[in-house]
Write a sequence for this structure.
């Protein structure tokens, strides 16, 4: 029977370890059989690896390595590659944060299982189209999160409580992915309708640094000190004196002596009673019934009033249909092109369109037919993926209404191309005039941060 023990042999590995010694603990033949192995530790000088494609990321160590792994992963050309965790201690978080997980002293898992997993993820990732080259680094991160979730079949990203996290919660599934703060990243993706959030918890966080590690204390309303005590109020019937118990206490004795009439109080209910309780501040002596509440932040030491704490809603997130389309197509324009093409044969994928364009050029050369290419360019400034989606979507609807049956449309990056077949450019101007006003209206909707410019290109010999 054929042995598969060397199936790591064609893989390029990037090994992340707490130190070099621990790598030696991993069975020699297991890693050393690979095509190439690079090892990086938190002390390494080089932690950016965008110049090489790796097949598998291997982390060796404990949860301490999570943040470093996230950092290294974010520098990779393919940041959603598979991650195998060889754990030095048991951890549910590591199990969730990685694709393949086992303990360092456990017998090595069967290699075919590893290669199967790697292939699974690889083939899922290969379904994704090229990402829009105009995307900002934030947008690239957003699409990567979507792609990571889809390639791992994570239908919902669920937060769990963790003392190690600033917000008291973490997303273990997404722990090693993305270079930004996961909470704000997911939140931005919800406002762009790539994800749909659902309530999990409503917590209070520090008004200064946003940490959830804050403690609520009762404090003196006068000086703000938490050095306060509670005492019974004592009412002496005979003379009518009303004061806290400490007024009646005499040093070195356990008797209660009235500070006003100097008589001893003996029987509760007969000569005195305890009608209420009160707070007394050990710092300023203030006596009060209702204490203030204040928080102290264990992260930045900020002290602030109870109602000054910031509200923080923790959610779990589902991928929306738009998010899924965006992940697969790589750009909002492609999402729209794909959906427009489904219902309208005039909308073509760019590779098909460019073949037709070529053909049109040949026809022009051979028969002297003149066609015109309209190039609509969207110059967008600081607009979100969703805004751009809306603009392209409105433009597509406009084109659908105004195009002839023989015209063809495609999109590439921020360009929408319309091929007006057998129409010279001077005639195409009439068409342009029809849609120009509406195009202006579309571009004005988003506070004129978008400009749609157009150019007519004569297709001739
Ligand atoms: Zn703080
Ligand atoms: Zn006080
Ligand atoms: Zn008295």
């Amino acid at each position: 029977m054929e042995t598969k023990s060397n199936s790591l042999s064609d893989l390029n590995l990037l090994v992340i370890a707490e130190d070099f010694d621990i790598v030696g603990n991993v069975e020699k033949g297991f890693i050393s059989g690979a095509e190439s192995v690079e090892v990086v530790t938190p002390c390494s000088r080089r932690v950016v690896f965008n110049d090489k494609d790796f097949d598998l990321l291997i982390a060796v160590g404990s949860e301490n390595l999570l943040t470093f792994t996230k950092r290294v992963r974010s520098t990779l050309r393919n940041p959603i590659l598979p991650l195998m965790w060889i754990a030095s201690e048991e951890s549910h978080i590591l199990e969730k944060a990685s694709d393949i997980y086992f303990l360092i002293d456990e017998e090595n898992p069967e290699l075919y299982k590893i290669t199967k997993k790697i292939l699974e993820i690889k083939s899922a990732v290969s379904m994704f189209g090229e990402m829009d080259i105009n995307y900002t680094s934030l947008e690239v991160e957003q699409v990567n999160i979507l792609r990571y979730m889809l390639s791992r079949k994570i239908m919902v990203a669920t937060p769990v409580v963790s003392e190690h996290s600033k917000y008291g919660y973490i997303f273990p599934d997404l722990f090693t992915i993305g270079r930004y703060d996961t909470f704000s990243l997911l939140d931005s993706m919800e406002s762009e309708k790539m994800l749909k959030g659902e309530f999990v918890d409503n917590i209070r966080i520090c008004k200064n640094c946003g940490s959830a590690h804050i403690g609520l204390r009762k404090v003196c309303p006068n000086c703000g000190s938490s050095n306060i005590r509670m005492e019974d109020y004592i009412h002496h019937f005979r003379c009518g004196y009303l004061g806290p118990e400490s007024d009646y206490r005499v040093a070195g004795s356990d008797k209660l002596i009235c500070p006003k009439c100097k008589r001893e109080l003996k029987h509760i209910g007969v000569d005195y009673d305890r009608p209420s309780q009160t707070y007394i501040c050990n710092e300023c002596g203030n006596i009060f019934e209702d204490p203030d509440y204040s928080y102290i932040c264990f992260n930045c030491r900020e002290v602030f009033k109870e109602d000054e704490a910031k509200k923080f809603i923790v959610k779990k997130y589902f991928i929306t249909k738009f998010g899924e389309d965006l992940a697969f197509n790589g750009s909002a324009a492609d999402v729209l092109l794909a959906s427009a093409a489904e219902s309208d044969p005039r909308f073509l994928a760019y590779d098909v369109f460019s073949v037709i364009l070529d053909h049109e050029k040949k026809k022009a050369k051979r028969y002297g037919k003149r066609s015109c290419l309209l190039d609509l360019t969207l110059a967008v400034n600081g607009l979100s993926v969703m805004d751009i989606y809306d603009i392209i979507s409105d433009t597509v609807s406009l084109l659908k209404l105004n195009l002839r049956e023989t015209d063809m449309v495609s999109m590439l990056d921020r360009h929408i191309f319309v091929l007006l077949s057998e129409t010279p450019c001077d005639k195409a101007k009439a068409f342009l005039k029809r849609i120009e006003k509406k195009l202006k209206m579309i571009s004005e909707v988003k506070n004129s941060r978008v400009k749609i410019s157009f150019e007519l290109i004569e297709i001739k010999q």
